[in-house]
UniProtKB/TrEMBL annotation:
The lineage of its organism: Archaea, Methanobacteriati, Methanobacteriota, Stenosarchaea group, Methanomicrobia. It comes from Methanofollis liminatans DSM 4140. Zn(2+) binds at C276, C278, C281. Belongs to the archaeosine tRNA-ribosyltransferase family. The gene is tgtA. Its cofactor is Zn(2+). Exchanges the guanine residue with 7-cyano-7-deazaguanine (preQ0) at position 15 in the dihydrouridine loop (D-loop) of archaeal tRNAs. This is tRNA-guanine(15) transglycosylase. GO terms for molecular function: pentosyltransferase activity; zinc ion binding.
Amino acid sequence: MGISFEVLQKDIAGRIGRLRVGEKTVKTPALLPVVNPHLPIITPREMQEMGVEAIITNAYIFSKSADFRERALSEGLHSVLGFDGVIMTDSGSFQLMVYGEVEITNLQTLGFQKAIGSDIIVPLDIPTTPDADRERAEQELAITLGRIREARAFLGPDAQLAGPVQGALFPELRQYAGSAVQEIGFDFCPIGAVVPLMENYRYKDLVDVVLAAKRGLSPSTCVHLFGAGHPAMFALGVAMGCDIFDSAAYALFAKDGRYLTTYGSLKVEELSELPCPCAVCRNHTADELKRSPDRERLLALHNLYVTLAEIARIRQAITDGTLWELLDTRCRSHPRLLEAYREFLRHTGELERNDNVSKRRFFYQGSESCMRTEVVHYQRTLDRVSLGGRVLVTLTGSSPGGYDDVLFFKPPFGPYPQGLSETFPIGQSEIPYWDDDMVRTGCRGIARLAESHPESAITVLCPAEWTAFVRNELPEIEVLDEHAV
């Protein structure tokens, strides 16, 4: 039956999609909770009742388990776990990353995953760690690609296989890996070996790794960000073009007494209130949760509720065309996320090409908003504006007359003709009092207009308080003070 992916809606590089795995479907973006059969703090059946359509478990653990190996082979994975949705199985690569070796070969794990009825089978790729040098990264990537080709030949062209993308911290290797996996023939590609980056808050490096891999992959490929499980970073992951996340964080954080939120994690012992509308938090006080004999399970339930709710919130933001606003808010919850957000904004030139031309709104939320795709796109299209010989760009809203064309000004976009005043983004943008960053970006729009219309003489009319600033930004354009006209 194979795997296929259909994009239904998009915003930035984020997508709402439909992942088809055989006869089953998963709505994306989606979270795949990690299930350990030996420690089922929340059962897969309970997860399904919470709206989970797919889970991930570890085939290597099953293969080495005295309790579950034979049951999985005889009854099948879905029966053992009590879950009839999509089950993805990791090959043992996580153990390989943690322990350096595993007692299984690529063909052995592929055969075992098929025998137990896995819906998405993963080859035994080599998860090259971020500290690896170029030579090691190239060698291990070659092994990974060899195993992916081996998996495709062993299981056949219609097998429901994942094609992992490796390459450590080398963007060109990640891009090459994406292209190579794509050529072999995959519609589902996990980006691997990124857990150490997230554990050490190296989100800026994560941005470079993911965007490089995406350059090599087809836009129609479903992208899985392996091991990304904290809700605070989901908006960034989706905005980069990741569709699937998997997480054991809901359980691991609960075991450590941590309470997940969309802006970080809190120690439950320090809570006096439970600031969440989930069933756990509305049926318990903070003191009751701390003292409960089921505290770990209750925390895990809360953590999973919060995580699933954030995925739903992101899908709604894509539908509304407001993923930028959500991303901006989430990335201000931690300095390292803000650093990653600014790195992401450096790539808006390439992101703009695939973003929607029109959206519901544009909320200015600070200097970072000046680099959004909507601003880049608007200024790139200024060369389409038809102009006469003498043109006034008025920042005051008034015009002294004597010009062939009068354009108005709205930062951070720049100049616009009256006919665009009700269209996106000019008419649907909410801009507070002007600041230096937005006016500077708007002036770049004026400069772009002048460069694309060399036959037009452009004059800018400024409010007195902005005249000196605009003259400094536009030294080659005539800038008039409103009081001098």
